[in-house]
Specification:
Structural class: mainly alpha
Low-confidence stretches: 7-23
Distance between the termini: 43 Å
Number of strands: 0
Shape: globular
Radius of gyration: 18 Å
Order of helices and strands: HHHHHHHHHH
Largest sheet: none
């Protein structure tokens, strides 16, 4: 069953990618129009938009899946998720507030790289290739920074009103964290069930290979978009 889930996940990613430009951190057209038109403080709508972004952000989900893939204790999961949240929140808030934009194709390619990095880490590739284990906590924080810049770049492109900017951004970030908790809860429940299967370790290798392929696919799509739209 797990192998079919892996296949369907990768297939869905392949079908989603051609649907539009730089989708990894894009905001739906209706939400984009709403962001551009409103002024003032709108906490609940921005909490909703933040949660929606995280739950539907397949690059976030893939990276977080890689992060918790071999974590069994809630304490460890909480630590890594907190590091990711700190990185993501810092660059998202600072990027929009100080108008720090990065080319969306470049930053989304780096986010694809984060998926590749974590999946290779899960496969023990760095130990075999270099005889050393990178600091996974530092890597999670650093890639959290990259994920945050991906979103801030999109928000800057949508020219959000400065009236109520800070409260709305904070509300959006709260929504992102709520969405992250919801997504991780589903992932953790599914992983807990899967880990009880005798075939988990064999299928875990296949799953992480599939994540490497998905990460490279994301990278290739964004790099192609950069040169095509340059």
């Amino acid at each position: 069953m797990a192998r079919y889930c892996i296949f369907l996940s990768v297939l869905a990613l392949v079908l989603i990618l051609p649907a539009g430009g730089a989708l990894a951190h894009a905001v739906a057209e209706g939400d984009k129009g709403y962001i551009q038109e409103i002024t003032g403080v709108h906490l609940i709508p921005f909490i909703y938009l933040g949660a929606k972004h995280m739950v539907t952000g397949y690059d976030h989900i893939l990276f977080l899946l890689g992060v918790i893939f071999f974590l069994y204790r809630l304490k460890d999961i909480g630590l890594y998720v907190t590091l990711f949240a700190i990185g993501h929140s810092t660059t998202m808030l600072a990027g929009v507030y100080f108008n720090i934009g990065i080319n969306s194709y470049i930053i989304d390619a780096i986010i694809g790289l984060s998926v590749v990095y974590k999946a290779l880490d899960n496969l023990g590739a760095y130990q075999r290739w270099f005889g050393a284990q990178p600091n996974t906590k530092a890597a999670t924080l650093i890639f959290g920074f990259c994920h945050g810049f991906g979103l801030s770049t999109k928000i800057i492109d949508y020219d959000i009103s400065p009236d109520g900017l800070v409260p709305n951004l904070l509300a959006f970030n709260v929504g992102v964290e709520i969405g992250q908790i919801l997504a991780l809860s589903v992932i953790f429940i599914a992983m807990s069930y899967w880990r009880r299967k005798p075939s988990f370790w064999r299928q875990a290798y296949t799953a992480n290979v599939a994540m490497v392929a998905a990460g490279f696919l994301l990278m290739g799509y964004q790099i192609t978009g950069y040169f095509v739209n340059a």
